[in-house]
Structures are given as structure tokens and as C-alpha cells.
Design brief:
This protein is of the alpha/beta class. It has a domain of 215 residues: Rossmann fold (3-Layer(aba) Sandwich). Helix content is 26%, strand content 20%. A hairpin with a 5-residue loop joins strand 2 and strand 3. The longest helix is centred in the first third of the chain and has 23 residues. It is globular. The structure holds S-adenosylmethionine. S-adenosylmethionine binds next to helix 2.
């Protein structure tokens, strides 16, 4: 098959230009997020076209293959509002450029020593690809995320760049939704999802998609804050705090509004991961966060089927 060239970055004035790329091997994997069939590039190089009539823009060299687009149902509204709030908060946090906490970084390093990210990796909701801090230098990696402007302003963040200097090196990046992955089936060894499952519109669909794009024997790594930690027991203090947080927006205080879609307990999370076809092979708890952040590795088990109800 002819090897398509990487998309041409056109807008030189954009602050994010040059921070993303699509290597030929990564371009080879891209398909329509709905039909999973190949896409062709428009003559002007500014869009991708499906065989059935759908088009997707290419913006600043980024393939924008998002499908989630509507705010009609309650769930859709919740996700869109949550994503908007997340993007605004992320922009505000980045403009402050606080030093990265070395203790948290060490804690994550210990996690990835125990649960290494192996082989070709798709980082779903991978943001700027900070996971690269824990990968081998030549490891194949794609970050995919619906936050298309996620790289804007990165070069003005000296603290961030001190910890993650590779953020100025181009990373394979595709703009898309976890629920509609625009990648061929069976082509990754690891699908990584850190601090994202609680953001998804539909975590179950996202896990089914992870299953599809993983090779046989491939692994799903999920890192997430779970309610009640290992035991799932939620203390009185936490309950009171959550109640207060839920009540504040009703009296006009929006600052603490919770935009996450789902707050699973450890049992709920592991049950969903298992039901979607993964054999849980490792679990580690990150130091800090009151013991609430777990990392789960699930290995793809062939033959997953809908359970009889
Ligand atoms: C808290 S950040 C985590 C970023 C990164 N994984 C990390 O650990 O640094 C949550 C990310 O989930 C992304 N996200 C939200 N909804 C998503 C969806 N439906 N599919 C994929 N990513 C999504 C957001 O854009 C954001 O980058």
C-alpha cells in the first residue's frame, strides 16, 4: 500500500504549530471513526473524506475526527458542558504554569515501573502526551483527545517544560472521541486511559473500542480516582463535602461544580473492565490522593460476548 505523507502544517502563526505530527505508520492506522473504513484526503489537503459522504476537517495539521457534536439529550449536554469546563480550566491552569509536583511524578514513575506501558501505545484522552515521560525513547505512541487546542501556549510554560521538555517535540496526535476511535482494529499493544474514564460520555463504549483496537494479548491500562478507595467505603466527611458541592450550584456558586460523568467505586470499575473483555492482571494504588487512585491492567481476552440477561 502506498504510504501517505504526514499532513502539512499550514498555519505558521498558530502557537501550537509543529507540536503535533502524524508519522506514516500512524497515518496508516487512521480510518473513519464510524464505518472504520479508510479515509481519503481532499484535494486541498484541508479535509478527510469517507466513502459514504462524511467529511472531517484538518486544522493546523490535526485530523479532527470527532463525532460527538450535539447537546440534545441530558447526557450529551452533561458531556459537552463538562468538556468545555475542563478545557477552560486547563487553559487557566496552564497560564499560571505552576511547578510540577515532584512527589506525584515519583509516585507515577513507581506505578509505570510496576505496570509498564508496552509496545505500540494509544493514549486515549492523552492530552499533550505527557505519558511520554514514562515510555522508551523509540516507543510508538499516539495521543488522541477531543481537546484540539491542547498544545496552544505550551511553549510559554517554563515550569511545565522543565519537567516535560519533550512537549516541544512533535507527537502523533489525533483529535477524536474514545467512543468512536478512528483506528484500525487489532493494531496496538497497549491502550492507556489515565484520569479520563470519568470524563467519557460512555465509558462502556470506550472500553469496547479499546478492546477492538488492541491486538490479541494486548493490555488496557486504566488509571482513575475511585470512590472510597480499595474498600469503596465513603466516609461521612467525604459524603458531606460531596453534598455541599452538589448544592452550591443551586445557589449560584458554580466554581466547584462537578463536571465528571461518572464516579465509579473500585468494584464498579473493575466489573465494567472485565465485562468488556479484559482479564485483570495487575492493580496498583498510587501514593497520595488518600489512597483513592488505582491503576488497573487488563489483558484482552478473546471471545468476549454480550452476557445473557
Ligand atoms: C484529566 S485529563 C487527563 C489527561 C491525560 N490522560 C493525563 O493523564 O494527563 C482528561 C482528558 O480527557 C479528555 N476527554 C474528555 N472526554 C473524552 C472523550 N469522550 N474521549 C476521549 N477523551 C476525552 C479531555 O479532553 C482531557 O484531555
Amino acid at each position: 500500500m502506498e504510504s501517505p505523507t504526514a499532513p502539512v502544517v499550514k498555519d505558521r502563526s498558530s502557537v501550537a504549530v509543529g507540536l503535533t505530527k502524524l508519522d506514516p505508520w500512524a497515518r496508516e492506522l487512521i480510518v473513519d471513526p464510524l464505518s472504520k473504513e479508510p479515509l481519503t484526503e481532499g484535494a486541498a489537503g484541508d479535509c478527510l473524506m469517507s466513502a459514504y459522504g462524511r467529511q472531517y476537517p484538518i486544522v493546523d495539521g490535526i485530523f479532527d475526527l470527532r463525532v460527538l457534536n450535539n447537546e440534545t439529550t441530558r447526557d450529551q449536554r452533561l458531556w459537552k458542558e463538562g468538556q468545555r469546563a475542563y478545557e477552560n480550566a486547563a487553559r487557566a491552569a496552564q497560564s499560571l504554569d505552576p511547578p510540577v509536583d515532584p512527589v506525584e511524578l515519583d509516585a507515577m514513575r513507581r506505578i509505570y515501573n510496576d505496570i509498564p506501558v508496552e509496545g505500540d501505545c494509544l493514549d486515549v484522552g492523552g492530552h499533550q502526551g505527557r505519558l511520554r515521560a514514562f515510555l522508551a525513547p523509540d516507543q510508538r505512541y499516539i495521543s488522541c483527545d477531543p481537546f484540539r487546542e491542547v498544545f496552544h501556549g505550551v511553549e510559554h510554560c517554563p515550569h511545565l517544560l522543565k519537567t516535560y521538555p519533550f512537549l516541544l517535540e512533535p507527537v502523533n496526535f489525533v483529535c477524536c472521541d474514545a467512543e468512536f476511535l478512528p483506528f484500525r482494529s487489532c493494531c496496538f499493544q497497549t491502550v492507556h486511559m489515565r484520569s479520563v474514564v470519568d470524563h467519557f460520555l460512555n465509558p462502556e463504549l470506550a472500553f469496547h473500542e479499546a478492546y477492538r483496537v488492541l491486538r490479541s494479548g494486548g493490555s488496557l491500562i486504566v488509571g482513575l480516582f475511585v470512590e472510597g478507595g480499595r474498600t469503596g467505603q465513603i466516609g461521612a466527611m467525604r459524603r458531606a463535602k460531596e453534598l455541599a458541592k452538589a448544592a452550591l450550584p443551586l445557589v449560584g456558586v458554580k466554581r466547584f461544580e462537578d463536571h465528571h460523568i461518572w464516579h465509579p467505586t473500585y468494584d464498579q470499575l473493575t466489573r465494567l473492565v472485565s465485562d468488556c473483555g479484559f482479564e485483570i492482571s495487575s492493580v496498583r494504588w498510587q501514593e497520595g490522593y488518600a489512597g483513592g487512585v488505582c491503576y488497573i491492567k487488563g489483558t484482552k481476552r478473546l471471545g468476549v460476548a454480550k452476557q445473557r440477561s
